[in-house]
Amino acid sequence: MSTIKEILSVLETMAPLAYAEDFDNVGLIIGDENAKATGILVCHDALENVINEAITKKCNLVVSFHPILFDGIKKITGKNYVERALLKAIKNDIAIYAVHTALDNHPEGVNKIFCETLGLVKTEILIPKQNHIRKLVTYTIRDNAEKVRNALFEAGAGSIGNYDKCSFNSEGTFTYQGNEKSEPTIGERGVLSRGTEVKIEVVYAKHLEAKIIKALRENHIYEEVATEIYNMKNTFKHIGLGMIGELEEPMDEKDFLQFAKDKMGANGIRHSAFTGKKVKKVAVLGGSGSFAIKNAIQAGADVYLTSDLKYHQYYEAENQLLLADIGHFESERYTKEYIVDYLRKKIPNFAIILSEENTNPVKYL
């Protein structure tokens, strides 16, 4: 890797920015993507002490789980922790990149790590992402159809769950007549052409659209490529927030909470009243997850493990499940290790360093 921009392409493969929630601030927050990369420091929060660590370790790219800049900002004067971190990074030519909900929504991201740490099996997304599937329809002659299909598949179109190279193909009659500026591949300018075409239909995740359209145009033989793009109402069940899975063996509620506390390295767990049921089905959502209490109940979870629950939200358990707040940092604890491991596999022989700074702002007696 020679530039930060090349590293960003790897990060966006790990956690596509299109996976992020609309409210979020993901991607490159500050920095020059064309600068030569000297090293990567991976952290949970890009605070001032982390920027100091990056300077010491000669890393000019900080990859953070949380975005240091989240809300709008009008001045950078160093009066609070956000401004101090940004000033320090700017003064030292350090870029900051955040993944946050782009990795929250990823099927191998934050919540899969959470599930694997607890040993959950038969996992699936708790809240599948909406409005993320699109359909492309295009037309070409028979001799060009296989080339176009394969190019679309190679670009990522036609994947449905555990199946790929999915398409629907039908034949019909085409007509067209080019004007004096046209250069038709088939037929002559100014003459009505008629023949048989193959209609190709494929679905795809919307973040792949530019790549798919590029592949289509590069492999289609027509001067003008006819395309139709539709937004699908189908949910994308393979990406989204939270996960639900099962323990290999049922556990008592108190035993499960102690087990989760130990596995996630928590200092304590706040929880609702015990229901008296065994824990078998477990829902998790790393970070603030009070909005998904109803989803966990509807999914039949025996316990919902998340963070940042407020006083009155514990009543929402309604004795239907056990609500447990493990702590925000703790619920995302192993995310930065995942990022480091991913980058080291994709970018060998490059300085990729796990931050040694503990940025958890919550302390315990």
UniProtKB/TrEMBL annotation:
Keyword Cell wall biogenesis/degradation: no
Cellular component GO terms, alphabetical: cytoplasm
Organism whose genome encodes this protein: Flavobacterium gilvum
InterPro entries: DUF34/NIF3, DUF34/NIF3_bac, DUF34/NIF3_sf, N-reg_PII/ATP_PRibTrfase_C
Family: Belongs to the GTP cyclohydrolase I type 2/NIF3 family.
Domain of life: Bacteria
Protein name: GTP cyclohydrolase 1 type 2 homolog
Keywords for the protein's UniProt record, in alphabetical order: Metal-binding
Binding residues for a divalent metal cation: 66, 104, 328, 332
